[in-house]
Design brief:
Keywords: Membrane, Transmembrane, Transmembrane helix. This protein is an all-alpha fold. The protein has helices at 2-24, 33-39, 44-68, 73-94, 106-109, 112-123, 125-149.
């Protein structure tokens, strides 16, 4: 069941993200982010932890690493992804939240904080997080109704 929900959620999230980005010109923190976050939308602590790790990643890269190393373009994106991965790993060691049935999906979630942090750097925190949560909520509602018909 989790496999079909994963595929459907990512599919719906990508389609909604593309439509939203074309209509309003705002990226909801990457194409795959709303679909992934919809899968953990019913677990507010996990959802909040991803968003907090994303903001911490943004601050570490923009106000820490970029003062020591010249970062732009792909290098900055790679720094965001790697820092997000390290932060998620440290957070999971300190406070493990992943339920047993979600362990196989947790690999996807490792890159999500870096993607969100990269979009925060481009658009700002309020726009990125609000549009991301809006599309995550819509994706979750669609996923909720999908679970009844499948």
């Amino acid at each position: 069941m989790i496999g079909s929900e994963l595929y459907f959620s990512l599919f719906v999230g990508i389609v909604l993200s593309l439509i939203f980005a074309e209509k309003f010109g705002i990226s909801p923190a990457g194409l795959v982010v709303p679909g992934y976050l919809a899968l953990i939308f019913d677990q507010p602590i996990m959802l909040l932890s991803v968003l907090v790790i994303s903001c911490i990643t943004y601050f570490i890269v923009n106000h820490g690493i970029s003062r020591v190393v010249i970062l732009y373009g792909r290098r900055k994106f790679a720094a965001m992804i790697l820092t997000g991965m390290v932060m998620k790993f440290i957070f999971d060691l300190i406070y493990p939240l992943t339920p047993f049935e979600m362990v196989e999906m947790s690999g996807i979630g490792v890159v999500i904080p870096g993607i969100i942090a990269n979009t925060i750097q481009k658009q700002g925190a309020v726009i990125t997080l609000s549009t991301c949560m809006l599309l995550t909520c819509i994706t979750y509602v669609i996923l909720f109704f999908y679970s009844f018909i499948s």
